[in-house]
Automatic annotation (TrEMBL):
Keyword entries, A-Z: Transferase
Annotated stretches, region: Disordered: 256-275
Protein's organism: Noviherbaspirillum saxi
Record-level Gene Ontology MF annotations: CoA-transferase activity
Residue ranges, compositional bias (Low complexity): 257-275
UniProt KW Transcription regulation keyword: no
Name this protein carries in UniProt: Ketoacid CoA transferase
Source superkingdom: Bacteria
Lineage, top ranks: Bacteria, Pseudomonadati, Pseudomonadota, Betaproteobacteria, Burkholderiales
Regions crossing the membrane: none
C-alpha cells in the first residue's frame, strides 16, 4: 500500500498522536475506549511502549493487539495472562491505568461530561451515558481524552453541564478532599494536541495539526488557551506506524471515526506568528 503523505488520513494522524500519550508510562493498563483510542493503545504497545498491559476486552491480557472488526478464519487469541474484572478494578484504584476516552464536553479545568446536556439536571436537553466510571477513574489514575470535532460546544465556556470527570477546579473540592491523584495528561482533537502543563494546570496547545493555526483552535474553544513554548506541528505517521495501524484495522473502521474521513494534510499551513 502506498504511503504517500497525501494518502494519510487525519484519523491515522490522531491515532499516532494519541499513542504518544502512553509513552513513558511504564507497566500499566492502557485502556483505549473507541476506535481511534483502541488503535492508539495497540500502536503504542507495538512501538515505543511494549511494557503496556492490554486486554482482549473480556478476561485476558494480550501481547498482540486484536485487530478490529471481524476476525479472520482460524484466528486464535494468544492470551498472556488472566485479567478478570476484579483485577481491572485493582488497577483502577491503584493508579495503574491510563485511559483514553471521548467525553462530550470539557471545560477549562479539564472537568468532563458524558452524562447529560442542558442547564437543568432534572430535565436535561439530551441524556447521554450517565457518569458511569468517570468519577472514580478521574481521581484514581491517569486520563487523556480524544475529541473528534473541536468546537465551543465541546470545549465549553464556564463549566461543563454536569461534572462526570473530575478536573483541576478547586471550587469543586469538598473539605478534606485530596486532589493530588488527579492526572490529566493530554487532549487530542481534530485540530491540535493540548496538555494541562500551564500555570495552575491551565490548558496549553502543545502542537497544531498540519494546516491549522493557533487562532483556529482558539476560535473553536470557549475559554482562553495558552501556547506551549515548544508548540510545533503534530507529526505525520511514518511508514512503520501506518503499516501497524492498517494491520490492526484491516477493515478500515477508522475511516468512519471522523466525518468525511479527511486527509491529514488539509491545506498549506499559514505562518505561525509568535506570541
Amino acid at each position: 500500500m502506498a504511503n504517500d503523505q497525501h494518502d494519510i488520513t487525519l484519523a491515522e494522524l490522531l491515532i499516532v498522536a494519541c499513542a504518544e500519550g502512553w509513552r513513558g508510562d511504564g507497566e500499566l493498563l492502557a485502556s483505549g475506549i473507541g476506535t481511534i483510542p483502541r488503535l492508539a493503545a495497540g500502536l503504542a504497545k507495538l512501538t515505543h511502549s511494549p511494557e503496556l498491559l492490554l486486554t482482549d476486552g473480556e478476561a485476558y491480557l494480550i501481547e498482540e493487539p486484536i485487530p478490529l472488526g471481524p476476525r479472520p478464519e482460524g484466528f486464535t487469541l494468544q492470551a498472556a495472562g488472566w485479567m478478570p474484572f476484579a483485577r481491572i478494578f485493582e488497577c483502577v484504584w491503584g493508579g495503574y491505568r491510563h485511559a483514553l476516552t471521548m467525553p462530550s464536553q470539557i471545560d477549562r479545568y479539564g472537568q468532563t461530561n458524558i452524562s447529560c446536556l442542558g442547564a437543568d439536571y432534572d430535565r436535561p436537553k439530551t441524556q447521554l451515558l450517565g457518569a458511569r466510571g468517570y468519577p472514580g477513574n478521574s481521581i484514581n489514575h491517569i486520563n487523556s481524552y480524544l475529541v473528534t470535532s473541536h468546537g465551543p460546544r465541546v470545549f465549553v465556556k464556564g463549566e461543563v453541564d454536569m461534572v462526570a470527570g473530575v478536573g483541576y477546579n478547586p471550587a469543586r473540592r469538598t473539605p478534606g478532599m485530596r486532589g493530588d491523584f488527579i492526572d490529566l495528561r493530554r487532549i487530542v482533537t481534530d485540530l491540535c494536541v493540548l496538555d494541562f502543563e500551564g500555570p495552575q494546570h491551565a490548558m496549553r496547545v502543545r502542537s497544531l495539526h498540519p494546516g491549522v493555526h493557533f487562532d483556529d483552535v482558539q476560535a473553536a474553544t470557549g475559554f482562553e488557551l495558552l501556547r506551549a513554548p515548544e508548540m510545533g506541528v503534530t507529526p505525520l505517521p511514518d511508514a512503520t506506524q501506518l503499516d501497524i495501524i492498517r494491520r490492526l484495522d484491516p477493515h478500515n473502521l477508522r475511516a468512519s471515526a471522523l466525518r468525511n474521513n479527511p486527509p491529514a494534510l488539509r491545506a498549506a499551513p499559514r505562518a505561525e506568528v509568535p506570541a
